[in-house]
Design brief:
Elements lengths: L12 H16 L6 H8 L5 H6 L2 H24 L5 H18 L1 H6 L11 H25 L5 H29 L6 H18 L10
């Protein structure tokens, strides 16, 4: 049953519009997104989305906020009770990729600076909360294995690795099929990448500039 066939109460209209927008993006991608089509799917007037979210950027920003919140909740649940930062980083990597695959519409727009308002306080807060989990784990990892590790840079690398895997995996599949090479699942690759990062972080020395400064 799509959003247009679901009854809603007045206070639920924001949720109905978000669900309709997510369904549309899942089917046609961000390029086929329109507020008018969202309204049609939600069974409301074409002016309703703009009234509630201002414009398409406002609605897509709400979805991006939800993306960060969903990721944060999934990771928090997955690592609950884990005390080993190495194991936790592996779990986080697998959860990050699995969440992106389970919520493709959210994943498609969360980092689209041309579509979402990255200056929105809700967007910034939700992103920093999710990012903070990763940074905290890497700080504990550094404390136990390599106090000289540049935690800020390591966090950026780990985040980029997870998001890059999500983005590039379809291309990896095509290359794998063309060459006849077996390709691990996204979850398996996420774990392999995380373990390579852990090994690299443990071996890395203090960060220095190319000129030695």
């Amino acid at each position: 049953m799509d959003a247009a066939s679901k009854p809603y109460h007045r206070g639920d209209l924001d949720r109905t519009l978000i669900e309709a927008a997510v369904g549309l993006i899942s089917e046609v991608g961000p390029g086929g997104f329109s507020l008018r089509e969202v309204a049609r799917r939600a069974g409301v007037s074409h002016a309703a989305p703009a009234h509630h979210f201002g414009d398409s950027r406002g609605l897509l920003t709400a979805i991006a906020v939800e993306a960060f919140e969903t990721l944060d909740a999934a990771i928090s649940h997955a690592v609950a009770g884990c005390v080993d930062p190495q194991a936790e980083l592996v779990i986080m990597a697998r959860t990050y990729v699995r969440t992106g695959l389970d919520y493709p519409a959210h994943c498609a727009i969360v980092f689209r600076t041309d579509l979402v308002d990255c200056d929105d306080p809700r967007y910034q807060h939700a992103g920093l909360v999710a990012y903070g989990h990763l940074e905290s784990v890497l700080a504990r990892l550094a404390a136990g294995t390599n106090p000289d590790l540049d935690v800020a840079t390591a966090t950026r690398l780990a985040w980029s690795t997870m998001q890059g895997l999500l983005t590039l995996y379809p291309n990896m599949q095509r290359m794998s099929e063309a060459t006849g090479q077996a390709l691990p699942s996204p979850d398996e690759l996420a774990e392999q990448f995380a373990r390579l990062l852990i090994d690299g972080f443990a071996a890395a020395g203090p960060h220095t500039s190319p000129t030695g400064g």
